[in-house]
């Protein structure tokens, strides 16, 4: 049995070690049920993101989008996110209500995301016409809104972790957040494949999205609403005085948030260093989202026709691969939650290099099973990219403007996607309209990102 004096000694040693590395343990230790409640809703949120990542390229090409124009559909979401996330962070920092200051945004964002998720897959069913400008505009707006409000749903979870979780529990909280995310991702990615096996039609008339994809979105929308409500009704945020006490802040000053421009000028060093890593790693991710289905359809099923059974089979298989990498990421998250806080840079680089290896294999292989197993490495990388930068950044913040900085840091997620989308209009024709070559470019970007982790300085 551990004596109280021994426990106190170990806690003191842990705090002393934390201070050595510039880490802060002043926040209280939370019950596991609280961490569970503040991360559980990520199941539904990531179902939305996974459906977008695994099915967007398939949907847009099915309704008549030329592969050379896919970049436009991946441009609007991050462009909106660049403006909305910082504003959401800034205003939620000072939104002190009886429901909390982060939860109200989830309460608004979840229902809107559900509505958009219901409408998006029916793009080809409204009679706009195959490849018509009306259909393309409708799809672009729906995709942008889905990404925008999915981020509105996700942001509170990241901000809650920064607000309420101490340094000793940070690896656990961020890992659980990703574990639940990948649990939702597994279900979302497998839905079209499972529904096909159950007898639902996986093909449709030219220009229409198959029923398997439509029902996957409808199920995802229901799960988003249910899991978000569970978090909303089971998480109680700190009141202003308690928050100020735990973060050692002036309770009066924390109610007035500086302008985003002032915050940018005072941003910690790690904010900019992590942004460099994000630039390259997110270009690698985006080119995988955009071109993996088309690359596999060509290399494995030997077709480039979006209306063909082979192309739709590639779309289903990419969904299976997404589920597979989600399983790998979930298991990796269980491992990572037990690692030391002082080893984050090592695991950050490791994850990015694993991601790079998976991208190059999928871009070149002519075997669907090799592509599947390669995505286990992609899962490690995806977990890393969605966890480590935020854990490292919040370690460098003082609690005064956590939401604002996390919102501003979202620019480091959005801007690479914008750069990558715009660059694709030039690069894609240069590489002979080869979707495999676009993935290879993503591989190079990811490798550069892995080496860039060396410049990051963590802590206050």
How much helical structure, as a percent, in the residues? Answer: over 70%
Sketch the topology as an H/E string, one letter per element: HHHHHHHHHHHHHHHHHH
Q: Roughly how many Å is the radius of gyration? A: 22 Å
Largest sheet: none
**How would you describe the shape?**
globular
What does this structure look like?
This protein is mostly helical. The longest helix is centred in the N-terminal third of the chain and has 32 residues. The chain has 18 helices and no strands.
Task: Tag the structure with descriptive keywords.
mainly alpha; disordered N terminus; 0% strand; 18 helices; globular; 460 residues
Quick overview of this protein structure:
The protein is mostly helical and 460 residues long. It has helices at residues 4-20, 32-40, 42-62, 70-73, 76-93, 103-119, 133-164, 167-197, 211-234, 240-247, 260-265, 269-299, 309-336, 344-364, 368-395, 402-409, 411-430, 435-452. It contains 18 helices and no strands.
Reconstruct the topology from this structure.
Elements: H1 4-20, H2 32-40, H3 42-62, H4 70-73, H5 76-93, H6 103-119, H7 133-164, H8 167-197, H9 211-234, H10 240-247, H11 260-265, H12 269-299, H13 309-336, H14 344-364, H15 368-395, H16 402-409, H17 411-430, H18 435-452
């Amino acid at each position: 049995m551990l004596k109280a004096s021994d426990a106190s000694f170990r806690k003191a040693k842990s705090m002393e070690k934390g201070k050595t590395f510039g880490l802060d343990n002043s926040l209280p230790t939370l019950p596991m049920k609280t961490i569970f409640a503040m991360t559980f809703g990520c199941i539904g949120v990531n179902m939305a993101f996974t459906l977008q990542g695994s099915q967007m390229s398939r949907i847009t090409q099915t309704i008549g989008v030329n592969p050379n124009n896919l970049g436009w559909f991946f441009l609007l979401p991050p462009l909106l996110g660049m403006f909305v996330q910082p504003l959401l962070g800034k205003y939620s920092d000072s939104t002190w209500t009886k429901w909390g200051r982060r939860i109200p945004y989830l309460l608004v964002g979840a229902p809107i995301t559900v509505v958009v998720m219901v409408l998006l897959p029916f793009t080809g069913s409204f009679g706009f016409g195959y490849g018509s400008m009306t259909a393309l505009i409708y799809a672009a707006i729906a995709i942008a809104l889905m990404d925008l409000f999915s981020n509105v749903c996700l942001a509170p979870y990241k901000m809650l972790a920064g607000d309420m979780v101490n340094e000793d529990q940070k690896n656990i909280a961020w890992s659980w957040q990703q574990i639940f995310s990948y649990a939702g991702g597994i279900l979302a990615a497998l839905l079209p494949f499972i529904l096909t096996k159950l007898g639902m039609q996986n093909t449709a008339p030219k220009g229409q999205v198959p029923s398997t994809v439509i029902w996957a979105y409808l199920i995802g929308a229901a799960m988003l609403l249910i899991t978000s409500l569970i978090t909303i009704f089971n998480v109680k945020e700190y009141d202003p005085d308690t928050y100020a006490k735990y973060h050692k802040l002036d309770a009066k000053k924390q109610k007035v948030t500086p302008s985003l421009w002032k915050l940018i000028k005072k941003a910690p060093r790690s904010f900019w260093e992590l942004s460099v890593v994000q630039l390259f790693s997110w270009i690698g991710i985006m080119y995988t989202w955009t071109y993996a289905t088309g690359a596999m359809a060509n290399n494995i099923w030997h077709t480039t026709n979006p209306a063909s059974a082979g192309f739709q089979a590639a779309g289903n298989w990419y969904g299976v691969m997404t589920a597979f990498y989600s399983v790998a990421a979930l298991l990796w998250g269980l491992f990572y939650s037990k690692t030391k806080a002082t080893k984050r840079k090592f695991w950050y680089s490791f994850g990015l290099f694993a991601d790079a290896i998976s991208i190059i294999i999928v871009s070149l292989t002519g075997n669907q099973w090799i592509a599947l197993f390669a995505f286990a490495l992609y899962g490690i990388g995806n977990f890393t990219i969605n966890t480590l930068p935020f854990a490292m950044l919040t370690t460098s913040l003082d609690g005064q403007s956590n939401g604002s900085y996390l919102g501003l840091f979202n620019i480091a997620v959005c801007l690479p996607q914008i750069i990558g989308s715009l660059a694709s209009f030039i690069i894609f024709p240069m590489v002979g309209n080869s979707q495999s070559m676009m993935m290879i470019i993503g591989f190079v970007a990811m490798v550069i990102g892995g080496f860039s982790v060396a410049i990051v300085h963590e802590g206050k």
